[in-house]
Amino acid sequence: MQKKILNHRYELERKIGEGGMARVYLGRDLRLNRRVAIKVLHEHYASDATFLQRFHHEAQAAAGLRHPCIVNVYDVGQDGDIHYIVMEYVEGSDLKSLILRNGPLPIEHAVAIAEDVAEGLEAAHRLGMVHRDVKPQNILVSPAGEVKITDFGIAKSSLSTALTETGVTFGTADYLSPEQARGLAATPRSDIYALGVTLYEMLTGRLPFTGENAVAVAMQHVSVDPPPPRMFNPQIPPRLEALVLAALSKNPDERPASAREFAQMLRAYRAASQEATIVRPAMSRPSPPRSAPGPVAAASAVPAAGRTALPPPRSPLAAQAPSASGGRDLGIFLLGMMFIGLILGIVYLAATGAFDNLFHFNGGTRPPPVVRPEVTVEPTATPAPQMAIVPNVIGLDERSAIAAIEGAGLLPYAELPRASDVVSAGLVFDQFPPATTVVTASSVVTYVVSTGPETIPLPEVVTMRGIDAEFQLRSLGFQVQVVSAPDRLSAGFVFRTEPAAGTPLRRGDTVTIFVSIGDKVRMPDVTGLPEEEAIRRVVAAGLTWSYSDYQGCDKLGDLCDRYAPGVVVSSIPRGGELVDRGSPVTLGVRAP
């Protein structure tokens, strides 16, 4: 079989991969005599002018990326109906295959891969490119350990005028950031989230979220906290676990500020862990081996190479001759102990009355007790703090709430207004401390004013795939009703919504999306019409009249008496059926 050559330059050798948008071939650049990877767009996208414009635009933008951790894009072109991208060919395997084959990767290896990917993403982000589909399948690892990010096929350039791309707006659900799942625009921090999921999978051999379908998984990204990775791999250090969970924060502002910052955090972790690995063995001191009493062997006095020699343990049985200074210090210590003992003895005798007996025994007179005048100390009274009862300001307008708080001797403080589905706009719907709480006077009472029920502008989902549109709308909190109907738009795509895009709606409101079943028309019911009128209605409906079958009473039987000559008695297709636009129609007409 003769090999395909694109534009007399790029020879396709064999298919090495396939995705939702394109097939990837191992090829050869005949002009430069080098191996390349050639991504060929699927045929059904070749007729979509908008998609092709975006495909070529983003490919050209990706070709401007130059970084050791990003697969180079050499060329983008077209040969007839074939649209292709020529890229650097990387020997090795994608990261997903490595994980499936080997399970969790060694911790240091996983962190090093994530660090390289973060550096590559930083290079793309600096040029205004957001990858939007970071996942192990799009990370290549060579046998030498080189890491390359590939497939910027759905990357979003800051120069692009396209807002969405049908079928690939959300990336892959397993690695989808919460903001993308809500239908919001992807940002560099969305790529950081996806990299966090990838690192989680490298360390544990599993994904943080799983479900029966893509929608179930995506909803967990929005609202469920990931299980700590140490649950599945206790060998993960707590500091590394904290880095992973920071990258997986639901709030983009709580993730690392940039891919560069995430790379630096991973690099700092690796440096610290390596230092701890080096220092920890030196700090641990093995127990000395047991040996018979006697002189220490000479070999044990020689320190091992690279280690600090430790002094031999002191033997409690070894007697040492006291030095002169040592004897003097010992004498001073003994005199001090005797003096302290004498003082304690005198105190004890006084406490037990031994001195009283001594006076009586000697005939002496006990001195009269000393009478000390009692001194009364008046305690200083601490004034009790003034207290106040927090008023109930929920349901009041802001001016009335301030007046009530100040009237109670407290200080009002307004938080930023927020939406409330219960309290009308302009009224207070929350406060702290709660009403009737007893607090110190001049304490602060915080209140929040309602902006009314939260409304969300209905996003534009027309021309999106029905499954993607339904997912996006449900992730925003809407109820979705799907109606299948014919339209000139390709089957499976949304051609209309009720209400229209931009309409402000509340969570829980119902949105109806009309999904095309293809460019079909409904066959009009022309039975009982004169032949000419029937043909006119068939053509007006977008169908083609092809033949009239004139039938006599011998064929019509009882129908012969119901229809006059020249009147339509039947049609193929029958009235009311949905058929492809332009389909041929055959009319059954009573013969004259």
Protein described:
28% of the residues are buried. With 592 residues, the protein is of the alpha+beta class. The strands form nine sheets. A six-stranded antiparallel beta sheet has the order 1-2-3-4-6-5, covered by helices on one side. It has helices spanning 49-63, 95-102, 107-126, 178-181, 188-204, 214-223, 238-247, 259-283, 324-352, 354-361, 398-407, 466-475, 531-540, 553-556, and strands at residues 5-6, 10-18, 22-29, 34-41, 73-79, 82-88, 93-94, 129-130, 139-141, 147-149, 156-157, 387-389, 411-414, 428-432, 438-440, 444-449, 455-457, 479-485, 494-498, 504-506, 510-516, 520-522, 544-551, 568-572, 578-580, 584-590. The protein has five domains: 5-88, Phosphorylase Kinase, domain 1, CATH 3.30.200; 93-274, Transferase(Phosphotransferase), domain 1 (Orthogonal Bundle), CATH 1.10.510.10; 387-449, 2-Layer Sandwich (Trypsin Inhibitor V, Chain A), CATH 3.30.10; 455-516, Trypsin Inhibitor V, Chain A (2-Layer Sandwich); 520-590, 2-Layer Sandwich (Trypsin Inhibitor V, Chain A). Mean pLDDT is 80; it is low at 157-170, 279-327, 357-367 and 369-373. It is flat, with a radius of gyration of 43 Å. The protein is built from 14 helices and 26 strands.
